[in-house]
Amino acid sequence: MTWWKDSVVYQIYPRSFMDSNGDGIGDLQGIIQKLDYLKKLGIDIIWLSPVYDSPNDDNGYDIRDYFKIMSEFGTMQDFDQMLDEIHKRDMKLMMDLVVNHTSDEHEWFAQYPDFYYWQDQPNNWKSVFGGPAWEFDDKRNQYYLHIFSKKQPDLNWENPNLREKVYDMMRWWLDKGVDGFRMDVINFISKDSELPDTPDGDGSPYFMNGPRIHEFLHEMNQEVLSNYDCVTVGEMPGAAPGDAQKYTNPDNQELNMIFTFEHMDLDGGSDKWDLKPLNLVDLKENLEKWQHALFNVGWNSLYWNNHDQPRIVSRFGDDQEYRVESAKMLATCLHMMQGTPYIYQGEEVGMTNVAFESIDQYEDIETLNMYQEKKEQGWSHEDIMRSIHVKGRDNARTPMQWNDAANAGFTTGEPWLQVNPNYKAINVKQALEETDSIFYYYQSLISLRKTYDVITNGDFTLIHRDHPDIFAYKRETDQETLTVYCNFSANEYDINQPSGEILIQNYESSHEKLRPWEAVVFYEK
Ligand code: TEU
Ligand code: CA
């Protein structure tokens, strides 16, 4: 079954979505309160970032118990009620599956040491969140591997007993009725057994898309996934189109689709904090490459935002004068491509990056560790803060802006992370009141996907390839043609308008020129 091919997904980061009891932390009852809002937007699937019991070293991506709900978010009873309410509204729920690592507080870590990686002498790999990727354990007198924080030890998938435990847990959730999984860094689970030193301490060639990855995913598919009508998306940093073809080709029976990172890395240098302006031609050619690679082979996911990425309107758009136009333009550009689109909470009202003054206002472990590390490397406070303002993960994690009341209507208490001070101007209440808001534009894009087959099935041809500011492409089937023009700048440009009717546009009426941040889609049958 391929219902996920014409579905639209909405990601909820529960900690920041809606707080129902005034403790400043979003929760499951808060999500239940907002399901009608999501239904109104028109989405089909909710991807819920982790809600499992966790000491929150990495906001739930460090799981202590896969069978228990984080007490701050509610109880298993709240979960069952939420799942039921989602299904009643004819939507589906995709859980976050974090099985590259657990929390060091998971009972497995003490009970089953051979579920993890232990060595007498560590190699020289560095952790994604800074510092070495190995931590000494006094009790064992050995080092354990952690690609992320030291409270996130990596699981050893070479061990068949571990794999069986993971599959049992997945079946338990699917039997409960969840509709699929978003799999956290799932292409990291097969490591090269040599775990060799590398010239620069970057171990990724030995753990990304490792030697047994296709075998493990196929086994997971046969043991679990193929027995359910579910949807899967694998988060895969470092996956190239050739890898993606293998992961998502239905003949291989692994996953439905993957999240790739190439288009998100184009405005970074040696690392993501090393800021570099986006070259639009690079973005066009990158997305073209992915559109072509998976056409009739596998399936793409489409995203600009998630809980790890800065807000797209601040990143590739204009979050000041042309905030509304550029947010709609970016949405058009993405949603008219082939693949399953993902909307991250707040994107549908054009939420922007935040620039807190003090490092103490930040909560994210990656940001806090990076601040220390860059300081030690001699970066100035100002330069570090600039990188954090542009790229930090807390840009995506400030609470959802529901209205213009205190704390943006997210909580009646003290929010765990401060709200973006622009909530009086940018919020859901206002978006619902204005008929030409970004919200209703997203609603239209979603409904077009349900109406025009070419959006799901058409092929992709880039046009005006070398234009520095215009991203334009055609989508075609035997019956239909779609031509999409997106202006990634405040400059005006002449275009040769194709024939056909206008399906959607972000300005009120048409014009022979492409205006600042304009998007227009032509349709011909
Ligand atoms: O992210 C994986 C990942 O590669 C991130 O480290 C990403 O590169 C980084 O956030 C960009 O700065 C996943 C989750 O999405 C993330 O929230 C978790 O922190 C991470 O895995 C560990 O579970
Ligand atoms: Ca709460």
TrEMBL record:
Biological process annotations from GO: oligosaccharide catabolic process
Report the source organism. Aquisalibacillus elongatus
The chemistry this enzyme catalyses reads:
Hydrolysis of (1->6)-alpha-D-glucosidic linkages in some oligosaccharides produced from starch and glycogen by alpha-amylase, and in isomaltose
What is the predominant subcellular site recorded for this chain? cytoplasm
Q: Write down the top EC class of this protein.
A: hydrolase
SMART domains given for it? Aamy
Q: What is this protein called?
A: oligo-1,6-glucosidase
- InterPro entries of this UniProt entry? GH, GH13_cat_dom, Glyco_hydro_b, O16G_dom_2
Q: Which GO terms describe its molecular function?
A: alpha-amylase activity; oligo-1,6-glucosidase activity
Under Pfam families, the record lists: Alpha-amylase
Per the record, the similarity remark reads:
Belongs to the glycosyl hydrolase 13 family.
Would the keyword Manganese be found if you checked this record's keyword annotation?
no
Q: What is its EC number?
A: 3.2.1.10
Subcellular localization: Cytoplasm
